[in-house]
Amino acid sequence: MAAKQYVWMDGRFIDFDKANVHVLTHSLQYGSGIFEGIRAYSTEKGPAVFRLAEHAARFINSAKIVGMELGFSKKQVADVILSTIKKNGLASCYIRPFAFYNDQQIGLNITGKKVSFAVAAIPFGNYFQTKDKGISCKVASWQRINSHVLPPQAKASANYLNSILASQEAKHAGYDEAVLLSPQGHVAEGPGENIFLVRDGRLLTPGLESDILPGITRDSIIKLASRLDIVVEERAVHREELYTCDEAFFTGTAAEMTPITSVDSRKIGDGKPGPITALLSERFAAIAHGKDSEYSKWLTFA
After folding, report:
1. What are 177's strand-pairing partners?
2. Per-chain mean pLDDT for the chain
3. Angle CA 183–197–214, to nearest 5
4. In 3-state terms, what secondary structure has residue 253?
5. Can you tell me the distance from the alpha carbon of 219 to that of 194, in angstroms, rounded to the nearest whole number?
6. Rounded distance, CA 31 to CA 52, Å?
7. Per CATH, is 135-288 categorized as 3.40.50.620?
8. Euclidean distance between CA atoms 128 and 258, whole angstroms
9. What is the pLDDT, as a whole number, of residue 1?
10. Which residues are catalytic?
11. Per-residue confidence (pLDDT) for residue 3, from 0 to 100
12. Assigned CATH class of 6-122
C-alpha cells in the first residue's frame, strides 16, 4: 500500500484525510446519494477489478433511477476507478464510488444542486470474521423495502437505513447477520448481500420480484453454477425453506461468498459449510485472482 492515500473527487486527487464535506451537505442530511461497492483482487498480473463494466453500469443506472444528473459515462466512471487504484498503489482493495448532492441548503429540493462524484480505494479483508466457518442469521422483523417505498434496484444511500436496522437487530440478538423478507413474506436478501439456498443439489435464489438488489456477485455465481451443470432456480423463496435447505450462503462484493450455517437458531444441514458452497467458493476465488482463464473477461487490470 502506498504511504499516502488519495481520494479522487470532482476531477482531482486529494489527500484521504481532506476528502471532507460540510455538515449540512444535502446527501448527508437526507441520504440522497448513490454508491457502488467493488473489489480489486491481487493477481500475478497486478490488481484486477472484478466485473468493472457491470459495476460502472449499475452505478449509472442507480443515478437514472433516483433522477440524478451524474454527468459521467460508464467508461469515465471505470477510468476514474482504475486511476484511483493506481494512484494509491494498492495490490488489492475495496473501491467506493459515491455521487452526492454537494449543497448546504436546508430543504428536500434537489433541482439545480451540485452533484459531486468521488472514488475511494482502501485495503479490505473479510467482511465477516468467521467467513470460512460460516455465520448465523436471524430473520428480521423489518421488511425489505419495495418499489412502492424506495427503489430497491438502485444502490442508493437512503435504502441502507433499512439494512442497518435489520442488521443491528440481528447483532443485538446475538446473531452475525439478518435476513430480510419481502412484504409478501418471501425471502429477499441480507442487509448487504444476496442469498442462495441449496436443496437436493439445486441452487435456489430470490428473483427480482422479491425486491432484491440485482447483485453482480449473485449474477456471477448463477453463471458459474450453470457452467458447472448445477441447476439454478430464480423464484420466490418461502421463509420455511431457510430452515429445511441443505446449504445456504450470502453473496456480495464485501461478503464475497459467505456460508450461512444457521437461521433463527435452526442448524442448516450439519451446521458446516456444504460441498456445493465450498465448490462455488473455491472456483469464485480462483476467477477473482486471475487463475481461471475461462473467466478472464470478468477482470480489468489496473
Report:
1. 137
2. 96
3. 55
4. coil
5. 10
6. 25
7. no
8. 8
9. 44
10. 155
11. 65
12. alpha beta
